[in-house]
Amino acid sequence: MAKTVLKNILQISIILIFNSFLAQETSEKLPKNAVNDTISKKDTIVVKKESLDDILQTKADNIRRDFPKKMIYLNKKAQVKYQDMQIDADYISIDEKKSLVYARGKLDSLGKIIEPVITTQAGKKYETNEFHYNTKTKQAVAYNARTEESEGVIIAKKTKKYSDSVFAMKNAMYTTDEYFIKKKDTAADYHMLASNIKLIKTKEKSQIITGPIQLYIERVPTPLIMPFAILPFSSKRSAGILIPSFGERQDVGFFLNGIGYYQPIGEHFDLKVLADIYTKGSWDIRPEMNYMKKYRYSGNFSADVGTMVRGIKGLDDYNKNSTYRIAWRHTQDTKANPFLNFSASVDVVSTKFYNNTLNNNYILNQNVLNTQQNSTVTLTKRFLKLPATITATTSYSQNFATGTSDLRLPQMNVAINQFYLFKSKTGVRSGLLENITVNTGLNLTNYVQTNEGELFKKEMWDKLQTGLKNNIALGTNTTVAKYFTFSLGANIDNALTTKTIKRFYDPVASKDITETDKGIAGYSTFSSTASIQTTLYGMMKFKKGSTIEAIRHMMTPSIGFTYSPDFGGSGYGYYKNYYNASGALTPYSIFEGGIVGSPTSGMVGALGFNIGNNIEMKVKSKSDSTGVKKVKLFESLNLSGSYNFAAKDHPWSILTINGQSSFFNNKLSVNTSLSLDPYKIIYLPGQDTGGIRTEDFGHFSVQGFNVQLSYPLSSEIFGQKTDYAKKYKSKGEIRNENYYFDDDNYARFDQAWTLNVNANYAYTKTSGNRIPTRMASVGLDGSVKLTPFWNINGSTHYDMVTKELAYTRIGFSRDQRSFTINFNWVPFGQYKVYDFFIGIKANILSDALKYKDRSFTQPNPPF
């Protein structure tokens, strides 16, 4: 029988091989138009296309197949992988006939889902209770799906996936609550609920489009309902309308604040334009542009132009003021170009800009207290081989008290790097000649002092001055007698200017006249110095067992002689004389008030001295490992003055004493200065001004005294930092996760606080005045963290002379999970305002969900 079977198999194989060969030969010999008895296309066998485009991979603890129904059942730790999709669930069923995949989460004994289905596609994770997926159409339906997008999460009762880019959601909520997203809490502190949401996703961005959507706080519905909402989720910038705040004020009427539009411009720029509109005529527009090129530069340009209208036109209380502000900040990356650097810090404002009462921003940030505003644009050029640095600067300084402005347009400085005049013979410089150094450079300045109304007008250009200065400084030093340093120096100044003055008395007008000469003039001056200094050390030791072990004193005395000729002499032509209105012969410098300054008058042959001191004390200390601690009594204590041998009167200068020290482990900082006039000043009976400085030497009256103290206090100074995790076992949950609890169930946390205390006292006597000017104030600036979520901060100053509180600000902030609350208040002084804000922290909703309330300063009533 075995032979028969083998024979049959062999015969069948031969027939199949022959037929296959014959079919191959016939196929090759058939013409393009085959005869009718050939096999037609209708009779050919068509291979059915596979229902799956890829391999469907499955795994589970328990797998069961139903071949008649073409079903696969996966139980416990079930997983299905298909193309870029992965489904993990407790239970999955696959219907091969209908190309359907069904997944369900893990159930508890009551049939409630306790572990969700996790679907991952294209790196994105989705959580659902139940999930239906059609492998043929690639459409899906999910129930209680949880989708994280950007800063928030969407949870919908039913979600239908039409394609990889379009999702339709029914009864969906959206929230940015960080605790809810990270599953630290089962309920969001706020959410927005919509009956229908459409999620559109592309490669570059995604967005939510909803119908009516309502805000819920702690699951309580609020009356805030929006007819529709569009939330873009994208790491890239996108254009859009900026939502304004609105309200009503008695002085300006109804208003819209902050209405505007945001527009990205290319890869490196963006533009934002905001506007404030008031029904009684006031308005304000604020464009702002930001730009950045990575590793090259970054900057910001902003402007603020507006008109403030008060009162009713035609009545006495009507007034209209226009204000403006132009600001520009530009910073170049230090690595972009080491030889060329450009920077700008421009802030030009109108005189009354910070006093604009349409808003209180400038009151709360203390800009309203500014008396000076400075703007600078700088270009610096360095060279690889040339020992020079060129710096071009344009500066604009505004003085709000006087209403004047100083403009330097432009100012250029060419600095030559310091070099030695002679080469060293041995490689080690020694002696006066080998140590001679030269410092020189050029400074070109165009300067004018003007007011706001004259800026860039003919009046300003007429007053513009141009000056060129060159300075050459020579210096050398050497060691004398091992312990002394001997120094020599010379200084030469050369100056040119386009404006000088001429003074004379006009008998017709009966007054002194000053005329300006626009011709080019200049001067040259020089001076020389010689000085010698050394360092002396002294030590005073105390008995053994004393708290103070020793006091160390380091003294650095120096004596120097300075000489310069009298450049006020008639031979130089820098000074001239005229008879004033009283008939007195009065000298004046033709460069007086000019941009390059005036040369000195009177010969100087002065011997100056300076005595520097540093005093330290060694005391016993248990806290130090060495058992000894150094205490600085005076970090520096300097006494300086001079005696001019060439002076006809008052050869002694004002004596000055400056001291600096710190105590309590360098926490308390003390700076003080004292100036003494060695000559007696007398006053006429009954007069407190017009004092006469006599030649009576030795009285040393106080002309100025200043002392400044500052002490930064903090919680770390007064106690060691507690390791709460080791000290307390119990830790809070959800919102209380930053708290630890002791055995009595009291909350413990790091209650950090800071308090900066500063005090200042100044005593000043101007020349010829008997009554001095005194200023004394105490200031406080600090913050305290009442809880991990509450922070209070503020600052105040008390004037002890006027006995009044100066500018005072109090503020607090509260971290309310998804919301942040800020309150700032200025309760005293001319500006009494407050500002309250509450809003969503997440950037995507920060402009839409917010509330802001503020008070405004009112204009003073007309007299």
Automatic annotation (TrEMBL):
<dbReference type="GO" id="GO:0009279">
    <property type="term" value="C:cell outer membrane"/>
</dbReference>
<feature type="signal peptide">
    <location>
        <begin position="1"/>
        <end position="23"/>
    </location>
</feature>
<feature type="domain" description="LPS-assembly protein LptD central">
    <location>
        <begin position="208"/>
        <end position="679"/>
    </location>
</feature>
<dbReference type="InterPro" id="IPR045659">
    <property type="entry name" value="LptD_2"/>
</dbReference>
<dbReference type="GO" id="GO:1990351">
    <property type="term" value="C:transporter complex"/>
</dbReference>
<dbReference type="Pfam" id="PF19838">
    <property type="entry name" value="LptD_2"/>
</dbReference>
<keyword id="KW-0732">Signal</keyword>
<protein>
    <submittedName>
        <fullName>LPS assembly outer membrane protein LptD (Organic solvent tolerance protein OstA)</fullName>
    </submittedName>
</protein>
<dbReference type="InterPro" id="IPR050218">
    <property type="entry name" value="LptD"/>
</dbReference>
